[in-house]
Fold this protein.
Amino acid sequence: MNFADDEPNAILSKSLILASKTVNRLNQIDQYHFPTDSSNDARQLLIDSFIQLQKPENVIAMDPSVLYNRLIALQELCDLIVQSSVDSISWPLVGYCDDIWKSFFDTNNHKIFYSVTPEHNYSIFNFSAYVASLLDCLLSPTIIKELIKKEIHCLQLASIEDDNLPLYAIIGHEFGHTVFDRRKSEIFPILGNHFIEVINQINKHFIDNEKSQAERRLRRTIEVVKAMAEELFSDLVGSLLMGPAYFLSSFEMSWGYTGSTFRILLAPEAINIRAYPSDLFRLNCTKTWTKVEDFCKSADIDFNKLKCSELKQLSKCLSTIPTTNDSDCASVRPKSDIDAAIIRDAIELQITQIKSSFNNFLADAAAQLRSWYPSSIVSLSTNDIGELLLRLQHNILPNIIPDGTLRGKPANLASILNASALLRLQLLATGDSKDQESLARRIGRIERLTAKALEVSFIQDRYNQWAKD
Amino acid sequence: MIPSALTNRGPYATIWGHIKSIDNALGRALDEKGQDTLTDLDRNRIEELIVFLKDAILTESTGTDVKPESLFSMDAGRSEFSSAIDLRQKLNTIKIFQEWHKPSKRALDASIERLTNAAAGYLKSSEGVLFPKNVPRKEFSIMKSIITALLIDAETDLQG
């Protein structure tokens, strides 16, 4: 034994032990706790991957250090399967998500499963593509292709779900990421058309600075533009799915930021570049696509009819959210990246044109979305939302909209979320900080009523479908 | 905390894994560790190295003939990380590469083309052959010196 020569062998042994332990761990998960069947597909994909990683004929060409590093990364995915449990995820709630998913994708080849994130937030990612990327330097492309037979996505819900319900509208944005990913071949040409002028100007800036580096820098900048376009496109999907509740949720998510910075995080791989338009610009786009002005006008009339003084204020509060974005700037990190400063300068020089190009891109993208998914886009009624608000104010489940019959009609997800988000934000903004207990009680009541209404209306809707069949 | 490359999950872990696995495949092709078989994974890693070198040097232009609309296409068939590395500059600092390249008085592009052609030729001639014999040892050693230099940078980034 000579550790100078045997180090790779020691790392390999350590890796194979970890792989074996992980397969056992995955096999021990109780599948009856999964919120939907898709969690089992994700688990099986991981088990199959680990089995391939342990096969001697595959191990022979692997770099043991890379194998161990990737196994550590795969542990995070195993944790997601463990956390995919009805103990923390309510089935009726994710049932709504499943319905939206089905309206977008062929569910035989595109699955979604639900897990949690420790963050007070939501996120989605292509689970199977991420598994494939982790296997990339370890298994041949043929084996990876055999493993990934269908796409599996993972929607991570906030771990303290009940406290995060008013932000449920954000799920619309998360689905937007998947739509963007699936429709890239159609979306990128639209984006390219609107950005030709801007990109030519940025290219000129790079050439003037250092010709030999220009194309490389331009390629990275285009990845930045694509990343920002993905965020804005996802906002658009969120807006069309959830209406003003998405605008309110986006506003709440922007709290704490100065709001006027385009934030860009460069990375060695193009796929890992992250870029976010300024919050104020995003809110401005969202305000347009959730049709806030029309909503306020219509709500003013409908809420008035319901003769509730508090509702009158609510009809106007949406238009008070700040969206002016004239003083936007750009920040590019990490500072150590060789291109950070020059990309920041190029973006700041073109920031007005960039925003205008994005607005034009979104207009085309909205038209495309309506033609691709006509049945997914909701049309909200301010009268329905007013009725639900009235119920919420009187501590009654906001699950029914009166229609003259005894049972009424079940409220849909977007209407419940809009009513809940409006009332909750108004209470938070106007709450008396000296009477915290009473405020906490009211907010808590709204959150519980909302959660329950979502469950009840979902089950009622399922019952109606079953009764009809 | 003692930094560990093996457990690092930071933003540079992916590029480190790519470079390290290419380094491993070149080492195996050069038979450094006593292995003499070429697997599909080895071939895939060497192919990735060819794409990376081509993207970073051979297809790089001055930016004056770039068509922006083409850059928005789905997949330009480029290596994932070639845009983030200034390889032209890096090559100036790699002694083994310079000792091979400079006396030849070839342009840098021609030297890189020679390396990628040798690697592509090797892959082609070894198709279906379990124990390939015609390893272009000189070119693979030069490419290994490039990859080792990039690996050192990646390790530093990994810990940063």
Notes: Helices of chain B lie at 13-29, 40-58, 68-71, 87-91, 95-101, 108-125, 137-159. Chain B touches chain A through 51 residues (CB under 8 Å).
